[in-house]
Request: fold
Amino acid sequence: MARVVESVVPEFGEKVRVDIVYTKDLSGAMRYADISRRLGRPAPVPAILVEDELVFDRTPAAEELRAHLMRICEEK
Reply:
């Protein structure tokens, strides 16, 4: 999943920021717990959240991720 994100995100420049959550770190584990609490269930791993909303719980095609990010950026 990280490869897809890394291949698409640079096209958006400063409009898109990537934060990777490493659950092995205390801060990452706390972030994961927060995300899971908001979802009302354990958050899927891997997953892509956009503006704190679960968007992909599986690896999307690059075109699918690109289209979603374009939609979000156009709305702003």
